[in-house]
Amino acid sequence: xxxxFKKLTNRFKRKSQDGGASQPAASTTDAPPAVAAAAxxxxxxxxxxxxxxxxxxxxxxxxxxxxxxxSDPTSAFHARDPYVPSQEILKGxxxxxxRDELRARATELNQQAEGSK
Length: 117
Fold this sequence. Notes:
Residues 1-117 are annotated as: Disordered. With 117 residues, this protein is mainly alpha-helical. The chain has helices spanning 2-18, 33-40, 87-92, 99-115. The model has no long low-confidence stretch (mean pLDDT 77).
């Protein structure tokens, strides 16, 4: 490896002493081969990305009624009133069970679950 670096530094020293005159001068009518090859190659450029934040949900289209995924801070103010059932529906409901009845039902269901194992 040291010999490689010595060769490289010697080559640069020679070019700097010669002033770069060791290469033949190109004519003005002919383009250098590197420029001609570069003109034939396609040119690529970087296009801007549509995202403005790091949230991938921002790239998705907005969906009506999307809940929290809509990212619209004012959508909470457009909510509807809570549902209040009519008197006919309320009359048809049975009264809620008491605490003791719910505990008895829970033990009954737990015994059935243990028996099925």
